[in-house]
Amino acid sequence: MSMNPLIASLEGKLIVSVQAYPGEPLRTPEIMAAMSRACELGGAAAIRCQGLADIAAIKGRVEVPVIGLWKDGHEGVYITPTLRHARACVNAGADIVAIDATDRPRPDGRSLEDTVAPLKEEGVLIMADCATIEDVRRAADLGFDMVSTTLSHGTAAIDCGMADGPDLPLLRQAVEEFPGVPVVCEGRVHTPAEARAAIDAGAWAVVVGTAITHPTSLTSWFKAELER
């Protein structure tokens, strides 16, 4: 089966995750859109973002593809957890929809397969956020357009320091098992060197978020090093 041109265009490229958490000073769609445009000017090939308002605002500000997701809740499956959430992301303007691809129970009782099948029929491009190689295998079998190491670390990127790097072992295993599937490295990519290492390990593309778009974390890293 031929690869969608949009997915093909991301090969070897940088995707920037532009997100701010509730209660943070940057937490407005307008600021997220401006930051996304700044990342686009810096060379980002796509923007990954969350929430319907952010998706719509960013889509109206950038020319590169938008990978949209909807975080609903804080535990279990909360990254675009249901078919309703995924369709809402599409309606908000997402070019690709990122979905939790683990086998954990979903709020609406649907299986991952039952969630994905209608989206595939509707022509929606979907990205699998995976935690393990089993998740990658499941996603590849279900026909996800991209798979990602997003969930392999178990905690949010903002909770880690500079010492923790990307999950290259999982990336390499996924690339080896599924040479025809675009495998994206996402999670704890803190430096250009780590991004390069991910591409060298076979990543189709690399997602960087905190190290580019989360100034609170960046400031805390510098502060911690000065106080070490």
UniProtKB/TrEMBL annotation:
UniProt-listed GO biological process terms: carbohydrate metabolic process; N-acetylmannosamine catabolic process; N-acetylneuraminate catabolic process
Reactions performed catalytically: an N-acyl-D-glucosamine 6-phosphate = an N-acyl-D-mannosamine 6-phosphate
Keyword Isomerase (UniProt): yes
UniProt keyword list: Carbohydrate metabolism, Isomerase
TM segment ranges: none
Signal peptide: none
Protease listed as a keyword: no
Functional pathway: Amino-sugar metabolism; N-acetylneuraminate degradation; D-fructose 6-phosphate from N-acetylneuraminate: step 3/5
Entry's EC annotation: 5.1.3.9
Pfam family, one: NanE
Uppermost EC category: isomerase
GO cellular component, one term: cytosol
GO MF entry, a single one: N-acylglucosamine-6-phosphate 2-epimerase activity
InterPro entries linked to this entry: Aldolase_TIM, NanE, RibuloseP-bd_barrel
Functional summary from the UniProt entry: Converts N-acetylmannosamine-6-phosphate (ManNAc-6-P) to N-acetylglucosamine-6-phosphate (GlcNAc-6-P).
Entry similarity comment: Belongs to the NanE family.
HAMAP family linked to this entry: ManNAc6P_epimer
Protein name (Swiss-Prot/TrEMBL): Putative N-acetylmannosamine-6-phosphate 2-epimerase
Species of the source: Collinsella stercoris DSM 13279
Gene name in the database record: nanE
